[in-house]
Amino acid sequence: MVPGEENQLVPKEDVFWRCRQNIFDEMKKKFLQIENAAEEPRVLCIIQDTTNSKTVNERITLNLPASTPLRKLFEDVANKVGYINGTFDLVWGNGINTADMAPLDHTSDKSLLDANFEPGKKNFLHLTDKDGEQPQILLEDSSAGDDSVHDRFIGPLPREGSVGSTSDYVSQNYSYSSILNKSETGYVGLVNQAMTCYLNSLLQTLFMTPEFRNALYKWEFEESEEDPVTSIPYQLQRLFVLLQTSKKRAIETTDVTRSFGWDSSEAWQQHDVQELCRVMFDALEQKWKQTEQADLINELYQGKLKDYVRCLECGYEGWRIDTYLDIPLVIRPYGSSQAFASVEEALHAFIQPEILDGPNQYFCERCKKKCDARKGLRFLHFPYLLTLQLKRFDFDYTTMHRIKLNDRMTFPEELDMSTFIDVEDEKSPQTESCTDSGAENEGSCHSDQMSNDFSNDDGVDEGICLESNSGTEKISKPGLEKITQEDIKKTHGGSSGSRGYYSSAFASSTNAYMLIYRLKDPARNAKFLEVDEYPEHIKNLVQRERELEEQEKRQREIERNTCKIKLFCLHPVKQVMMENKLEVHKDKTLKEAVEMAYKMMDLEEVIPMDCCRLVKYDEFHDYLERSYEGEEDTPMGLLLGGVKSTYMFDLLLETRKPDQVFQSYKPGEVMVKVHVVDLKAESVAAPVTVRAYLNQTVTEFKQLISKAIHLPAETMRIVLERCHNDLRLLTVPSKTLKAEGFFRSNKVFVESSETLDYQMAFTDSHLWKLLDRHANTIRLFVLLPEQSPGSYSKRTACQKAGGDSGGNVDDDCDRVKGPVGSLKSVEAILEESTEKLKSLSLQQQQDGDNGDSSKSTETSDFENIESPLNERDSSASVDNRELEQHIQTSDPENFQSEERSDSDVNNDRSTSSVDSDILSSSHSSDTLCNADNAQIPLANGLDSHSITSSRRTKANEGKKETWDTAEEDSGTDSEYDESGKSRGEIQYMYFKAEPYAADEGSGEGHKWLMVHVDKRITLAAFKQHLEPFVGALSSHFKVFRVYASNQEFESVRLNETLSSFSDDNKITIRLGRALKKGEYRVKVYQLLVNEQEPCKFLLDAVFAKGMTVRQSKEELIPQLREQCGLELSTDRFRLRKKTWKNPGTVFLDYHIYEEDINISSNWEVFLEVLDGVEKMKSMSQLAVLSRRWRPSEMKLDPFQEVVLESSSVDELREKLCEISGIPLEDIEFAKGRGTFPCDISVLDIHQDLDWNPKVSTLNVWPLYICDDGAVIFYRDKTEELMELTDEQRNELMKKESSRLQKTGHRVTYSPRKEKALKIYLDGAPNKDLTQD
């Protein structure tokens, strides 16, 4: 081209630089975008999925730029939760916007910042249903699916454990190929039962030995002579056939172990593979007696060797011939730090002779004297299959542990054994024979290698089989793959790092442990039998196993296509909710499934089948989701959304009476349980179930309820209970149910009377008080004392009156004259109380007729005392009566305790509602109403009250209750306030008691009360209500709460409410003085420092705030004499702090509780009997417990107390010198470890403790002795440790182990007891009780 021409080509250098500049520009642009995005404020969105109960506690967090449009937010949320975009709404959940419930627009391009999202803060959103319908699930292949399928399956997203469904009802992700399909290599693995890798390794090796497998195939099992289950050869034969012909990837070994007589526990026992080989070969020889295979093991595995001793003076040699099945080879000689490098070295060491000299000289029969001799082994004959055991397990005598040696030891594929054969003894035919077979160039053997440690994570063992000059495979995690020479080298063992004498730190699991070599002899080396070469009985066995495998495959296919879902049914006669599991094939129709469920619930003789149907049910919310009208011929796979491992819903077998018809349940409907409230009778009726839509207004909802319960809608008040004690009056007629907070299953209270109660504020109205009482009333069962109070109650009452007031004893005794003096029965007291109640009700009715509605409201019978406290003497003050006749909703602190445990909160939630039969004995039948049609008698398909009652009864039977720890951990408040007025008289809560007949086994013959009480009542007030029934003042009986395990714990916090109690809890009343203000119940234990059990419980005592230690000791003396038989004086014992079992601070007589000593409820103290005068006089002193260790005798002396004036180590040494006589310079001491008495084995104490710490004071590291009660061991450093023989050490170890186990202390070394490996020839073993 001519320069300057218009069409001039751009030089290559220009193209390069332009491309480079473009790349730089693009990179700069992206960096700017990233920089801008980093500077842009971000919005943190926290979304709560409220469409399903199981996802309501889950949170979805998105951190988005503030410029993100709303439609992008919806897309991100849809992808996050797996819903189809546009089938759900997002509404604000911040709290400030709760009044504005309008959902966000999912199509808007408005940014998050413009939509009032706040950057830098948490923006809470609720994911809710759209138009009353649940969000649609985003299926795996939504584009290919039918739209009708999406419409049909409406429900929450399957969570953990669920499997998404496809159009053919089966998850495409679920595959059985990993179990059923054979590997492409043709080999089959073995499944590890638990810890049976040693077994699998041996089985794989025997299977890969042609001579053994072929011989096993030739043996024929006679079923008439033996049970196939217990026949070891037959089960091995079956296993080998399956390993060769099965199409599975891995085979179970349970049938083989069952033939050994093992149970499932044996699978968790680790054993030695060489031991298993010997035991199994012995068992096979026993089974093969008098058969062609009788001598098979010896023919294949048995060799011969000579054990000789040769005199070095005359040359005389004595010898004997021994047989062997394997050769044990030492990895590392005893005392050596170097292992043998190869198998050949270990074999040479095995036959290396030793010299017997000195005290080990040999007595020569020819020389007739002891002479130096050479002792050794010589191989005479090698077996066809040579087994070498590499002794990788050893015993460390220092730590007394079994350890594994992982040193490197190489082994060749071909092993030349000619150098190890005996060629000297030509007289032995075995020698000549062995010399021929082991000649040079012919004495090498083919090798098989087996390790008992080959296993992988998915339970299939890796058996390695080596074939000469051919490819090899191994079973690995994903399947079968080729094994390489590098893999074989890894089995040699060894570690690159430095190691000590024992290499237990290098826990390799692939080191070779047993080697099997085969003689190279073309004439004898066999090949595996092919299928067409099988004997006839093996061909028959193969055919049977294939049929079983095909049958198993068909069964798995059926299981894979079976829907398994929970099935519920409310029994039409017993009214008890029954539960079962429905297993139905996906192709079965709904009609066929109804028939299966009908038979499963045993309703054949109860109700006709055409009076039953299956409906979709949510058991958690007790909610009927939908019915399946017109879909009787639809497959269950379509109705249930496919075959899944778990379903987010259940099925209910609904029943009806023959004259009723089923109601249609539509997916968008919600279920509402309507309780009718009668203000005059002060009762709450059983629920009536109606169904409504969330988009209905309150006015439309009232019309719907009016048709169902026949109450006028004009004066109707509806109260929604959204959660426990959260009552909401529906006052806005145009508001939708969704806006009011309705959910799937709801509970409302309806009242429609002509009274003026509706004009009052809702929280001040009679309706609110009645519902509040209904929500907080619980039913308790109270067991009264067995003995009649009688004179005891009267005496204690008079004593209390005399003690507290100093006079007026007669007046106080008259207070309990009714129940105590006349000894009225519980039934009589209740009868009088009932008469009083009737008169009060009549008076209220007359007041109501006079139009005094306010008075009627304030003096309703439920606010009057229904306990026999109304029967008190007429001299009671008018003020107290007025207090008893009115509910005063005072400060909430009166209802709540000062401290509440977690169990209290949990129990509050569990008692969210009370059955209506507490307040009303009549149960109205449910009526289901359709707003569009006239009223029709409908099926009682779901009696909500009955379900709730039966479900709660069932739950209470198996409920695990939590202990009320607050009662045990805190101090007790007085029953009386500062002015002396009873706390129980300050306010009144609902209380009603009636006699109760206990069930069998619940205390027949005892007096029981069934009490309905407001759980906000304090324990003090509750006890006062029980006074007439107990026959004693509340200060003279105690309340014990009975838990599910029948354990009883005293409730002592009198200002605590009963909020931690729930329905049907049991309470036991016992006579005895209750605690006053400032008093604490204390458990007293005796400290016995030199006894086997140093902590012994003595008694329960009461200590008071402000009491001195000496005063408490004086009060303990008569109790110790009467209850424990201890005759003590105040100077003969001391009290000290108890922390678990450790003795602590010594309390001095002048110490004052709560001032000098912190005290709490259920406090524990030690009582220590003194041998002499108390040495502890001041808090500056320190009392330690010393114990001498005598190494030369291997024993510990008893404890002796040492009182120090300071924390000086020198003073401690001087004191120890005084009590022991050991020279000061020879004393060594150490601090004890653990819980008192700091027991330690005498075999370990000499070296395990930190003797003679280099410190000058006791209160520094490593001693940290700052309080009384520390344990000090001391010894004489010049005393030598006793030398023990192995027998003495073993005997002492047993004694120490027994002693430490009895005292409950940890034994220093307690390895798992190894269990001997046994194979039982006749099936299961006989249990030998004398054998461990």
TrEMBL record:
Hydrolase in keyword set: yes
Signal peptide: none
CDD domains from the UniProt entry: peptidase_C19C
Region (Disordered): 421-499, 790-816, 837-925, 940-980
Reaction equation(s) it catalyzes: Thiol-dependent hydrolysis of ester, thioester, amide, peptide and isopeptide bonds formed by the C-terminal Gly of ubiquitin (a 76-residue protein attached to proteins as an intracellular targeting signal)
Enzyme category, top tier: hydrolase
Record's compositionally biased regions (Polar residues): 430-454, 886-895
Biased composition (Low complexity): 839-856, 910-925
Biased composition, class Basic and acidic residues, residue ranges: 474-490, 869-885, 897-907, 954-963
Ranges of Acidic residues composition bias in the record: 964-977
Record domain USP: where: 188-544
Keywords, in A-Z order: Hydrolase, Protease, Thiol protease, Ubl conjugation pathway
EC number(s) reported in the record: 3.4.19.12
InterPro entries with a match to the protein in the record: Papain-like_cys_pep_sf, Peptidase_C19, Peptidase_C19_UCH, USP, USP47_C, USP_CS
Claim: Secreted is one of the keywords in the record: no
Protein name: Ubiquitin carboxyl-terminal hydrolase 47
Organism of origin: Felis catus (Cat)
Taxonomy of the source species: Eukaryota, Metazoa, Chordata, Craniata, Vertebrata
Gene: USP47
